Amino acid sequence: MSRIQLLDPRLANQIAAGEVVERPASVVKELLENALDAGAAHINVDVEQGGVRLVRVRDNGSGIPRDDLPLALSRHATSKIAAVEDLEAIGSLGFRGEALAAISSVSRLTLTSNDGADAEGWQVLVEGRDMAPVVSPAAHPQGTTVEMRDLFFNTPARRRFLRTEKTEFNHLEEVFRRIALSEFDTAFRLSHNQKVVHQLPVARDDAARAQRVGRLCGVAFMEQSVSVDIEAAGLRLHGWVGLPTFSRAQADLQYFYVNGRVIRDKVVNHAVRQAYSDVMYHGRHAAYVLFLELDPALVDVNVHPTKHEVRFREQRMVHDFLFRSLHRAVAELRPGQTPAPEV
Ligand code: ADP
Ligand code: MG
């Protein structure tokens, strides 16, 4: 008798879900990325009980054609890439076709969408791994709503790893913040237990962008930071850097985006730390929201779904550009070093 068996596909999804869905925050990340990939101009996120009981993301993007609805929930099903060459130039946030399959295998998921082809929309519902998707008509304006309820209801071992409602919500809000800080052309709303936590209109000009950053990172940061915009040798660095007086005990207000993607990188961290080294007490951390733009050919975006790593082709050049730009900005900010006003 053979002891090796092929896993039932839904069970395989559940196992794979471990990599994609760790907690409600991971669900919010995946659903926000899907809405952005669909070109949504408005995205509403409603959550209950830290996202464990409910995460609902509603967008006004392209929508999903009726016949694609069950496919959207299958593993390795994506509309974003078709051939191996596409991997070289990924223009979307997603491409693995894993998220919806993973989420739907560990929750009760309803996907409602209207791609504009019919007046009404369509809905598909799955609960855990025991149900085949069923498509039925449902009213929905153009766009998509994904409603996830009862995360890990069928995987009690995973459910036990969830923390308190407050902790889960903090993780979720952080994911929302990271994304909302870079997608200024999209309006966002986040509500928790029916209370609106963030309401962010589209931010087209500098003033509106600064206002959004203030809403997400606090007014104190906006008051004690300056905006920078520096270009050299095909690199552009712009955003907001905190004054040394706004230093923090933890590195919890450091957002760095490369070509619109949030990343964590040693080269970047080192350059920033060096730029602040003269003015920052040991053990304190700078606060910043910075965007680096450069030729995509000069940077490898790590394609792991959750790690935010990049590899710069010209590490030295990027490091020196960041260091020089920030060093100058920070030096100009130093109290006592402000040039005396001309008489
Ligand atoms: P991926 O994003 O990697 O393609 P997902 O499992 O997240 O994989 O989504 C599967 C497919 O479902 C997507 O490729 C897309 O075609 C469709 N889809 C998911 N969410 C949305 C959305 N909000 N709007 C339009 N299409 C969506
Ligand atoms: Mg996706």
UniProtKB/TrEMBL annotation:
Keywords: DNA damage, DNA repair. GO terms for biological process: mismatch repair. GO terms for cellular component: mismatch repair complex. Coiled coil: none annotated. Residues 213-331 form the DNA mismatch repair protein S5 domain. It comes from the Bacteria. Transmembrane segments: none annotated. GO terms for molecular function: ATP binding; ATP hydrolysis activity; ATP-dependent DNA damage sensor activity; mismatched DNA binding. The keyword DNA damage applies. Belongs to the DNA mismatch repair MutL/HexB family. This protein is involved in the repair of mismatches in DNA. It is required for dam-dependent methyl-directed DNA mismatch repair. May act as a 'molecular matchmaker', a protein that promotes the formation of a stable complex between two or more DNA-binding proteins in an ATP-dependent manner without itself being part of a final effector complex. This is DNA mismatch repair protein MutL. The lineage of its organism: Bacteria, Pseudomonadati, Pseudomonadota, Gammaproteobacteria, Oceanospirillales. The gene is mutL. The chain holds residues 1 to 343 of 610 of the full protein.
